[in-house]
Amino acid sequence: MRRAYNSVLRLPQVSECPQCGGAYRPHRVCPACGFYKERQILTVKVGA
Q1: Most CB contacts within 10 A, which of 25, 30, 34, 38?
Q2: Domain range for residue 21?
Q3: Pairing label, strands 39-40, 15-16
Q4: Residues near 36 by beta carbon (within 8 Å), at least 6 away in sequence
């Protein structure tokens, strides 16, 4: 019973963005550049 929970604990999968090379979670918009499936979805401002 104690070992049954160990399979649930996993780190989130991370992919490399083809546009900017940053790390992002699969099937989500890249937080660094705002692209998803080679289309720009969000406008990301650089700096403060």
Answers
A1: 30
A2: 11-41
A3: unpaired
A4: 28, 29, 30
Q: How many residues does the chain have?
A: 48
Joined together, the tokens standing for residue 39 give 């289309």
Q: Is residue 2 part of a domain?
A: no
- Joined together, the tokens standing for residue 16 give 């490399």
Q: How many domains does the chain contain in total? A: 1
Inside any domain, residue 48: no
Angstrom distances, CA of residue 37 to CA of 11, 26, 30, 47: 23, 10, 10, 25
